[in-house]
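Q: My labmate handed me this sequence with no annotations at all. I'd like to see what the chain might look like in three dimensions before we decide whether it's worth expressing. Could you predict it?
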Amino acid sequence: MNPTIKSYLDWPEEICRRDSQPGRWTHPGSNICLDFHGNPDKAQLVVFSDGNHNMALKECLNLFKQQNTDLSEIFYATTPPGPIVNMLKRGGLQMGNLVIEVSPDVFISPPDILDKLVEKGFMSDHAPFFQNQGNVLLVKKGNPKNILTIADINQLEVRLFISNPETEKASYTIYSKTLLVTASGQDSDPEFLYNKITQGQVLFGESIHHREAPQAVADGSADVAIVFYHLALHYLRIFPDLFEAIPLGGSIKKPKPLPGNITAKTNMGLVGDGGEWGAKLLSFLNSKQAMIIYRHHGLRPI
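A: Here is what I predict for the chain of 302 residues:
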């Protein structure tokens, strides 16, 4: 992201529970893969998912594994759709000097992404999973620029972080439309986003905004980021001393998205026949237990 970054957020471990504890060697920002979880070589169940709900998916997979003692290993990836779609199509993915070759049993993503996988013959169908609760603004603890509305972002000295329009087109479209439509409702210039881009006041993510947005705000590369409500809720819970969130309708405890604050749906389905565990996982993810977990993380069943 930014070559001047001096420190990195200390993300909590997200791997599914395992019996053994392997050795570890990591360096923040270098030899670390935050969105690939587990051992792909020994996995009996492989899940590819968009990354913005990784906190809820992790809890569900842990509980599913706990309830199925015959399931020894789960591998799951939580990147934006692009990398995992390419991974499925090509049979693997190279990250630096590491190559992972694994195929998913279950794919979780926005409906239009899964529609294309159905067209290509990777999936036969997919079904609704959950819906988010719109978007909010993420700022540093104490809100030093006193950003309370979309209109406040229009100030020249306020730097905005937003996901990349090329590598994360789905989230960028939602965020940019939310900014522009909500700005119109708050008597702000509807062209303010374009103006800020031309003025060099917008920092685009590179490829994984659910990690990059809080990092940009934390290290001061941006003053504010627009993110999904449930992402902000996650950041507030794991980094309570670093961030605050500004609602765009309702409150952080009870969001009620303003008109124009776009909500989005996520679907799920089997890849091929789903292997031994895929269908069982889909059934579990449709269960009351799983929905309680997703509600806790700010998401709602469809």
